[in-house]
Amino acid sequence: MIRMSSSFIRTLREDPSDAEVASHKLLVRAGYIRRSAAGVYTWLPLGLKVMRKVEEIVREEMDAAGGHEVLFSALQPRAPYEASGRWEDYGPLLFRLKDRRGEDYLLAPTHEEMFALAVKDLFSSYKDLPITLYQIQSKYRDEARPRAGLLRVREFVMKDAYSFDVSDEGLDASYAAQREAYQRIFGRLGLETVICQADAGAMGGSRSEEFLHPTPVGEDTFVVSDGGYAANVEAVTTTPPPALSPEQIAALPAAHVEDTPGASTIAALTDFSNEVFPGQGPVAESGEWTRYEMLKHLVYQLTLPDGTTEPLVIAIPGDREVDEKRLEAAVSPATFAAFGPEDFAKHPVLKKGFIGPEGLGLESPSRIRYLVDPRVVPGSRWVAGAGQEDRHVYDLVFGRDFTADGTIEAAEVRDGDPAPDGSGPLRRTRGMEMGHIFQLGRKYAEALDLKVLDENGKQATVTMGSYGIGVTRAVAALAETHHDDKGLVWPRAVAPMDVHVLATGKDAAIFAEAERIASELEARGITVLYDDRPKVSPGVKFKDSELLGIPTSVVIGRGLAEGTVEVRDRASGEVDLVSPQDVLARVEAAVRGA
Amino acid sequence: MIRMSSSFIRTLREDPSDAEVASHKLLVRAGYIRRSAAGVYTWLPLGLKVMRKVEEIVREEMDAAGGHEVLFSALQPRAPYEASGRWEDYGPLLFRLKDRRGEDYLLAPTHEEMFALAVKDLFSSYKDLPITLYQIQSKYRDEARPRAGLLRVREFVMKDAYSFDVSDEGLDASYAAQREAYQRIFGRLGLETVICQADAGAMGGSRSEEFLHPTPVGEDTFVVSDGGYAANVEAVTTTPPPALSPEQIAALPAAHVEDTPGASTIAALTDFSNEVFPGQGPVAESGEWTRYEMLKHLVYQLTLPDGTTEPLVIAIPGDREVDEKRLEAAVSPATFAAFGPEDFAKHPVLKKGFIGPEGLGLESPSRIRYLVDPRVVPGSRWVAGAGQEDRHVYDLVFGRDFTADGTIEAAEVRDGDPAPDGSGPLRRTRGMEMGHIFQLGRKYAEALDLKVLDENGKQATVTMGSYGIGVTRAVAALAETHHDDKGLVWPRAVAPMDVHVLATGKDAAIFAEAERIASELEARGITVLYDDRPKVSPGVKFKDSELLGIPTSVVIGRGLAEGTVEVRDRASGEVDLVSPQDVLARVEAAVRGA
């Protein structure tokens, strides 16, 4: 039993000044968490209890799925992360430090390398596999802009699991087992999640899915179709229009350069074209020109993982913007930045405002990498810069008049775009990443030389999966989803305590009866928060109780004289008057039966 | 149930090459832990289970003692530790790092500052106190020489508790409650501990006791008396001989300087004195000279926390050596180093080999700090260097011929020295620090301005205690104490699993029966490690079982045909033959009854 009179529970009347989202405001105000540095939180008693409940649900389902729990230090040496490339690739996200001998260490963001080495250390045969190992532990990432309470932090508790298999089919099975465990975990937590195809990003590997909890405060944008498709925008692939055959291409009009004075923007070029070449555009019947076919060329400065830089030109239909998150994912592990005036000065082939395909490409003398949107298919006709001030090329046909070094998924995804699997138009929505599962494949095992003897006695490289759930983030998501204007409303599975007993009034008999009820509930194995504060008004106690959000409360107050106590349900607000004799059974039914 | 055929348990036949102590060898060989960097270990499945059991015992007793559990990040900002002085004082023991903005952070060695700030944050009145908060969490210390497996590491799990009181009496009560909780914890763990008076060291504060587990592999030396006194050597205070009154001193012979050619060591000076002044020494009847009265003067270079250096001369009876740990504790937070030839050159008053009190002291022109052993009392007579080559002063009386800036506890403590409390002669022994409790007093509260309103409405500085138990170290101590030449022998309270079921042989009926027994034990709430490996010999299974050290094992093998299975007790080695029908009850009695 926690007695509020001698507890470390303190509620606050005011929202923290830096709080933007409900979970941040409420968890701080209700005394569940407390900030200790930017993106670093302290777990106060009730918060810790919620976190442990989430942790225990995750642990039970990991064990049920055949996982073996271990525990690694957050502090790890540089060498394994150097071997995998992550020491570099993680850039400033990684907390790095030196020990007293000057050796490099890091605070692990995840532990792929260490788990691979542990398996390498202890296992040697295909007979030892498959195995799935996991840990629940504090992780560190030096986020550029920690914000929103527990939603974007620099220290967080995570469950990370890793599977090890000899065959691709084995990896599929291990992945499926974790995927099902995740569905059970989020089901038990009462957190709606959508499984989205995801971009594997810096983790490498092939298949990857995110468990996104749909919420307007989510940082991730994802798309869904009515036919059941769901994906992170970074993972959406564009459905290109049909390409033309060489015969069809041959029948198209020849490209021609035109003077386009002042038309250095897509809008200006579209207007100019409709004015000067009316009826010659591609829109059926009207012959109108649209922004779509004004092929937009954008230049970026790429920084490769080894620190070298190079320009990148990408071309996308003129009616779309670049989605920087998609671009980021597409160029990863390289990073991109704006192409500055000095950079343009070094590359005269890039005539700002009038860039076109002419003179671009790794095979061209400029050796500038040139990538196009997937909609730029053979036979597609475009208007593009001619590489000279105030001139554009019309009827520029891809595959006949120009080519590229490849395609790039960098253009924004819009509501109404087709789902890649043909399941209908896409709809954009926002979500919070609750879990992420990856088929890493053999990337880490190769980097760290993790091999076992296969059935034929030959060395076979192991294939891995990695599977994460943000435990502390799940607490935030639960608070985000389960609250009202009065405070938190915990689902029973994760509530810090089962019942909140309140003694309201000054009468000693009230406190004696409340004490009896609280003790007898505890004796039945029900955890009790008991508001025994002697000089606090009923109003304050009710407000605190609503803020704290324990699912059931028992109020012992003035009604006691008439033989009743109140049993309140935090979620529905329902109040039942019951006799002190019946209250134990009534609460027990609520706690166990719900 | 853990099935060994698909587990992450692997025993090793060889001791790790760097292992010196039994706990290190056995925990690695039995697959409980695995090294990931110098002083950084990974907890494998069975090791983690033992650690969690220790953690849970600690948690239960902390809760029973009225503690409130919270959780702080290991990553903390510099400022609070700067305010307390620990950012500097901890020196190279502290892992320091910078974030992407260049701000200083540390990996906390303990959290006094953060707990004080949390209380300051939420509490404001004496009515909020007392409170005791605790956490169980990973701590970091950059030890110079990590060694002995889990005994001296750079990352470890610790329970650290902090008490907050308004009054000194309150602190005494909070301290007593923790002290009792510690006794219960070590009792439940089955770890013998001696409560030793300790030096508070860098933590500051007044009263401090260590819970030392007596063991020859312990790093701490402590002393005990038959009368019940126990103390860390750093904390032992010397019992001085009685001082003489001014009248008695006046009756003593006058000091006289003598030529003592070549007598530059204590041994040489003693021999010289007995040869040249026979019968004039202090030994009753014989008049012999002993090494005791040849007052030994030693010079050290002190480095103060602010980085400045100064010489320190200490004088101790010539029959004792300096104990560097006692000296270290005595000068803390300053540190000491040898006084080199260049240092001597700078201070001509320090005539090497013939240093005496002449010309020393903060009040003297040399301003050299001069401290003496507590046995140097008024009226005590000494022989000391005269500050000149080959000359010594005889009948030098403290309080008449020389004084000092104070006393220092730096001389070694020897077997037979009197206990400070008069409880008899001391005996030196070795131990391992399992817990440490401190009355910090107001040091941290003052540094961090932690005040509450007292009963009179005035600001009162809070007084604190801090209380630590090394959870991972307790696992090592348990392994150190509970093993034999075949392997680990876990006490039941911390055993990773309740029972080890072994199927030995090839007969399918044996495996079927073992499976049934293992499942039925699990159904009764008994945790089972099941050795179901199909092609492993009985000999290997027995060896592994002894190495793993689970208290009870059930062997289903050849005897099954005659209707018996074996129940083995790991500690006693006793083997009972029981029928498969009786085995469940037999094991349950062992698990629950022991």
From TrEMBL, chains A, B:
- What transmembrane ranges does the database entry give? none
Q: Which CDD domains match?
A: ProRS_anticodon_short, ProRS_core_prok
Organism ancestry: Bacteria, Bacillati, Actinomycetota, Actinomycetes, Micrococcales
Q: Which Pfam families match?
A: HGTP_anticodon, tRNA-synt_2b, tRNA_edit
Q: What is this protein called?
A: Proline--tRNA ligase
Catalytic reaction annotation: tRNA(Pro) + L-proline + ATP = L-prolyl-tRNA(Pro) + AMP + diphosphate
A GO MF term: proline-tRNA ligase activity
Localization per Swiss-Prot or TrEMBL: Cytoplasm
Q: Which family does it belong to?
A: Belongs to the class-II aminoacyl-tRNA synthetase family. ProS type 1 subfamily.
The free-text domain remark for this protein reads:
Consists of three domains: the N-terminal catalytic domain, the editing domain and the C-terminal anticodon-binding domain.
**Keyword Nucleotide-binding included in the entry's annotation:** yes
* Boundaries of every Aminoacyl-transfer RNA synthetases class-II family profile domain copy: 34-491
Q: Which SUPFAM superfamilies match?
A: Class II aaRS ABD-related (SSF52954), Class II aaRS and biotin synthetases (SSF55681), YbaK/ProRS associated domain (SSF55826)
Q: Briefly, what is this protein's role?
A: Catalyzes the attachment of proline to tRNA(Pro) in a two-step reaction: proline is first activated by ATP to form Pro-AMP and then transferred to the acceptor end of tRNA(Pro). As ProRS can inadvertently accommodate and process non-cognate amino acids such as alanine and cysteine, to avoid such errors it has two additional distinct editing activities against alanine. One activity is designated as 'pretransfer' editing and involves the tRNA(Pro)-independent hydrolysis of activated Ala-AMP.
